[in-house]
Amino acid sequence: MVAHNGEINTLRGNINLMRAREGVMSSTLYEDDLVKLYPVVEEGLTDSGCFDNVCEFLVKAGQRSLPEAAMTMVPEAWEKDEEMDHEKRAFYRWAAMAMEPWDGPALLAFCDGRYVGAILDRNGLRPARYYLTADDHLYLSSEVGVNDHDEATIVKKVRT
């Protein structure tokens, strides 16, 4: 579900707070069987594995879309962005109360067969670039030169 470049510097705190929540979480989908999904974060995983565990839990048990789960875990620097749309700001305000951010420096890419996306943590210290080609392929990387492309086939090229 998730690919990751960087590191999650807040990992220990994120894991501890996720475990603390397990005693009060509920799910209309799983009801009393929700406890069978605990611990949400498996022991011995890398920061990418831990992030994936929580993201998948939010999608499956929390019934959120993959982009919503990613935006909840890795919010933009929204608090002082006066140009941000009101609905998006309201989402981030809610997310800030629901979960603490998973901060990097990190670039996280996600895909579930319906959605594909990428998100930079709010510090923005990891580079990200993507190419969209005429044959509807999307290439995302944090470095230049990962793939050789004929410039004539590139429809869109973005660096963040």
TrEMBL record:
Cofactor(s) this protein cannot do without: FMN; [3Fe-4S] cluster
KW Transferase (keyword) present: yes
Boundaries of every Glutamine amidotransferase type-2 domain copy: 1-160
UniProt EC number: 1.4.7.1
GO molecular function annotation: 3 iron, 4 sulfur cluster binding; glutamate synthase (ferredoxin) activity; glutamate synthase (NADH) activity; metal ion binding; transferase activity
Sorted UniProt keywords: 3Fe-4S, Amino-acid biosynthesis, Flavoprotein, FMN, Glutamate biosynthesis, Glutamine amidotransferase, Iron, Iron-sulfur, Metal-binding, Oxidoreductase, Transferase
Pathway, per record: Amino-acid biosynthesis; L-glutamate biosynthesis via GLT pathway; L-glutamate from 2-oxoglutarate and L-glutamine (ferredoxin route): step 1/1
GO biological process assignments: ammonia assimilation cycle; glutamate biosynthetic process
UniProt xrefs under Pfam families: GATase_2
Domain of life: Eukaryota
Class of this enzyme: oxidoreductase
Keyword Nucleus: no
Record-linked PANTHER family: FAD NADPH DEHYDROGENASE/OXIDOREDUCTASE, GLUTAMATE SYNTHASE (NADH)
Similarity comment: family membership: Belongs to the glutamate synthase family.
Protein's name according to its UniProt entry: glutamate synthase (ferredoxin)
Organism of derivation: Teladorsagia circumcincta
